[in-house]
Amino acid sequence: MNPHEIDLHKELKKYFGFNQFKGLQEQVVRSIITGNNTFVIMPTGGGKSLCYQLPALVLEGTAIVVSPLIALMKNQVDAIRSLSSEPGIAHVLNSSLNKTEVNQVKKDITSGITKLLYVAPESLTKEEYIAFLRSVKLSFVAIDEAHCISEWGHDFRPEYRNLRNIVRQLGDVPMIGLTATATPKVQEDILKNLDMPDANTFKASFNRPNLFYEVRTKTKNVESDIIRFIKQHKGKSGVIYCLSRKKVEEIAQVLQVNGISAVPYHAGLDAKTRAKHQDMFLMEDVEVVVATIAFGMGIDKPDVRYVIHHDIPKSLESYYQETGRAGRDGGEGHCLAYYSYKDIEKLEKFLSGKPVAEQEIGFALLQEVVAYAETSMSRRKFLLHYFGEEFDDVNGEGADMDDNVRNPKKKVEAQDQVVTLLKVVRDTKQLFKSKEVVLALVGKINAVIKAQKIDSMPCFGSGAAFDEKYWMALIRQVLVAGLLTKDIETYGVLKMSPKGEAFISKPESFLMSEDHEYNEEEDEAIVTAAKSSGTADEALMVMLRDLRKKVSKKLGVPPFVVFQDPSLEDMALKYPISIDELSNVHGVGEGKAKKYGKEFVDLIARYVEDNDIIRPDDLVVKSTGANSSLKLYIIQNVDRKLGLDDIAKAKGLSMDDLLKEMEQIVYSGTKLNIKYWIDEILDEDQQEEIHDYFMDSESDKIDLALKEFDGDYDTEELRLMRIKFISEVAN
């Protein structure tokens, strides 16, 4: 059948049940059907897979689809089989098949039943498969996730780099490259590596107007902030991304403890658990999935309402793909990322073990992430510029869906500085990256500047009136405005654009937004201040101390046995008015709350009532006792009378660390009977002497006890006795 005579709309309706194509789909399908090499750049959710599935179904022969993920292949094969009564219409060929299954696949291809064959790049290197595929009719080869071909893609796969040579061995078949994310640099790389410079290229817009982009400073209170955010979006589905498995587990636990239904998802869980958690999310049995980037590949949940990045990702490609999982149905989608430069430094550390070429790429990609997080211009405009797309940040669709646009930073005139910057780029022969350009501007020397003798040029130090941060921010904004461009061949090198040349000869107004200052220490103060003017409620504190004294007198124990000072301070900050809330206060466990708490919460409740205090109820974030499994281990093994040195060794702790853990256990109200261990070190008289000291003392501080006993006992002995004392007297 002549490809030009195929009624595409009829076929679309027949196989997929759609009445019309979406976006660029129809043009792409026509290009493929007429046998052209084709390159498709289409954001996730844009209907990318239909672009090659439909041609495969209507053309003669079998289409080969190269895909990097086994799980994805399986999903797609199942989806296509559901369109046809013939299960052999689509097959997978990868390492998971046995001999019999492989033979069945070959049989279905030979008899012309199989229209789509999904293969992993590794399978294509097997001699026997290549020989077989050469002997059958192939319609085309589609390479999905084609950014893996580019070393500039965010998950560089060596076996992908060799695909062109492998495909050549199959004979002269058209090639289709598809990717959901590609910067101009990556696009060029893909076309070069697939050796198809003549390909018809189709690029859909990367703008997702319904997504709201927001970046917040990451402080110590990031967990409370996330919980508050989720509670404001109660009943909606969301995904939280973390970089490490450990973090995923921790955050999932903290959410569960705080009454949010959440499950973890990462590569360390077995396949069954992962599948179960994914299904729970899809079926809405849980609200939130906390995941590493292993999650979401091929997740087709249209109503994810928010995506939170607890850790900033390694590249803007990853960020775009992960945020793109929100609001696929066109409804609300909130993309919230927490940023701290410390995280970037951590990621740089990870890179340091890699080969030099890979390190350089990794650093360049990270710099883009920093620029995105710190910029105060429209984030949407910045992101789209990164993907090679112009965006009108006044009238463009979704222009106000952005924290920077809604809370604009002060703008300052920077016309003269832009001229200075452009001249430095021009006079240094357009050979350098941002870092060197900035150093040349402020007049600082590094190895490159010395070697190139830039320090003896007249432009050296011409921008010394401003600091490095200022120039970095200006470079970013000048790039987006198109006065400078980043060279694609030598990535990161700043080049003049014609627009920039014109600006030097005829400068005009250039309003620069002042960059965000991400200073965690300051923000820390602000957050605490916001909680309740940064300090505990002094008046309440006095009342709590009096009550503690009264209770301790009545029970005949020192005040610190009832509650320690930090616990009282936390009460005067959080205003707990139930035993349940009290067990949430610093250093107060359930046992302690039940034993001493009633009078304290009654007092606080009265105080709150009398003074019309608005309680920060959302600040009462329960902690999981992040290392609760360690505490449990200690409690169980002390019960078994195991030697403390053995417990410490088993968990890789120093004695000091073990004592700290034990102190936390007894101070929050749990008994630890360590008499068996102390009996080995101190005789009864010595134990009694120290016990009496703590009983009569106003304070449980060890340095005071050391002074009192003047060298008779060492720190460790006193700490062990204090643990025994608190355990017996307080709990």
TrEMBL record:
Key words, A-Z: ATP-binding, DNA damage, DNA recombination, DNA repair, DNA-binding, Helicase, Hydrolase, Isomerase, Metal-binding, Nucleotide-binding, Zinc
Domain of life: Bacteria
Entry keyword RNA-binding: no
Cofactor(s) the record lists: Zn(2+); Mg(2+)
Helicase ATP-binding domain mapped to chain residues: 29-200
UniProt entry tagged with the keyword Glycosyltransferase: no
Domain HRDC: 534-614
EC annotation from Swiss-Prot or TrEMBL: 5.6.2.4
Catalysis performed (reactions): Couples ATP hydrolysis with the unwinding of duplex DNA by translocating in the 3'-5' direction
InterPro entries the record matches: DEAD/DEAH_box_helicase_dom, DNA_helicase_ATP-dep_RecQ, DNA_helicase_ATP-dep_RecQ_bac, Helicase_ATP-bd, Helicase_C-like, HRDC-like_sf, HRDC_dom, HRDC_dom_sf
GO molecular function annotation: DNA helicase activity; hydrolase activity
Record-linked CDD domains: DEXHc_RecQ, SF2_C_RecQ
Sequence ranges assigned to domain Helicase C-terminal in this UniProt record: 221-378
Family that this chain belongs to: Belongs to the helicase family. RecQ subfamily.
Annotated protein name in UniProt: DNA helicase RecQ
